[in-house]
Write a structure and sequence with these properties.
This protein has about 100 residues and is mainly alpha-helical. It has 4 helices and no strands. The longest helix is centred in the middle third of the chain and has 22 residues. The model has no long low-confidence stretch (mean pLDDT about 80).
Length: about 100
């Protein structure tokens, strides 16, 4: 006997009556298609947590890199152009003083 040819089961399924389901279940099953703008306002997308964290981290890093690249370096007041160390002179007298600690000398 083949599985598709079960007359007793077929007859039993024809007689079977299901109680009325609540209306809110019908709404969940028969979902209306949303327009694209309604989806943008009310829709949701399920994303695994690790992928969400990775996407958020990449968004922060990339946005900080973009903001940093667009910001020009400003020179302090009174100095124009690039910095130059040609006139740099080291400090003449370096006085080192250790304050506190067990190894004070």
């Amino acid at each position: 006997m083949a599985r598709d040819d079960d007359s007793e089961l077929r007859d039993l399924l024809r007689e079977w009556v299901v109680a009325d389901a609540p209306a809110h279940l019908d709404n969940r099953i028969l979902v209306r298609h949303m327009t694209w703008w309604r989806f943008l306002l009310q829709g949701s997308i399920r994303v695994p947590v690790p992928i969400g964290i990775l996407a958020a981290t990449m968004l922060v890093v990339l946005s900080s890199l973009l903001l940093r690249a667009d910001r020009p370096l400003a020179a302090p007041d009174g100095i124009s152009g690039a910095f130059s160390l040609t006139e740099f002179q080291p400090v003449g007298n370096v006085g080192v003083r250790i304050i506190g600690g067990d190894d004070a000398r």
